[in-house]
Specification:
Number of strands: 0
Low-confidence stretches: none
Mean pLDDT: 83
Order of helices and strands: HHHHHHHHH
Shape: globular
Length: 224
């Protein structure tokens, strides 16, 4: 079985679990939507500040929802020794990492579509650089999902996992939050030339995290 096929097998397994449990639909998506709506009401007194704050608020909502998705991705394997079964399955550890990261990224992509529509409707945002926005969103989402997968397995099995994952992930994804917010702000203003350096930062970060996670996931999974 090839590396990509093994990764697709793991990603399909995680996505089927989420589709059947509907946790993402019942908890993660409403949570992200509530965050966006609360920000809109909090800043509603000054409507002129909403478009300027939209990029940062959007990615804050995505990040908070991503923490839930990351914790969920590993907590489902706590019962019945499922994690041990995954470790002894014979699948390449790097493929397991990529598969779990792809599953988390897919959930985040769907979330971003919904939240993006809500931000446009509630914040009065006008999109002027759609191509840059999409590329930045893809790179940022890959970076978030890959970083979350690395630190998610690192915290697996610990009693304080639910509180430890945010403490580990939040500092690590600072470049993603900074780059994504700046790229979105520039793209929304139609300043694509200002957005591309941030997009390049996001792509470089994502490549480094994916490469490092692919190599490090095996030992981390064994320790977990």
């Amino acid at each position: 079985m090839t590396f990509l096929r093994e990764a697709a097998l793991v990603a399909g397994k995680d996505l089927r679990i989420e589709r059947r449990s509907r946790v993402a639909l019942a908890q993660i998506l409403p949570f992200g939507a509530i965050v966006v709506v609360m920000f809109a009401f909090a800043l509603d007194a000054d409507r002129t500040s909403l478009p300027a704050a939209a990029p940062g608020l959007f990615w804050t909502a995505v990040l908070l929802a991503a923490l839930l998705a990351i914790s969920r991705s590993f907590s489902v394997e706590e019962a019945n020794g499922a994690r041990d079964g995954l470790r002894m399955s014979g699948l390449d550890a790097g493929a397991i990492f990529v598969g779990k990261a792809v599953a988390i990224a897919t959930e985040l992509f769907l979330l971003e579509v919904v939240l993006g529509a809500a931000v446009i409707a509630l914040y009065g945002v006008t999109v002027r650089g759609a191509v840059v926005l999409v590329i930045a969103a893809v790179a940022a989402t890959v970076g978030l999902a890959a970083t979350g997968t690395v630190y998610g397995v690192l915290a697996t099995g610990l009693r304080a996992r639910d509180t430890l994952v945010p403490l580990l992930v939040l500092p690590a994804v600072t470049p993603v939050m900074l780059g994504a917010s700046q790229a979105f702000a520039a793209a929304l203003d139609g300043k694509n030339t200002d957005a591309w350096p941030w997009v390049q930062l996001l792509i470089a970060f994502s490549v480094l995290v994916v490469a490092g996670g692919t190599m490090a996931f095996g030992p981390l999974l064994e320790e977990a």
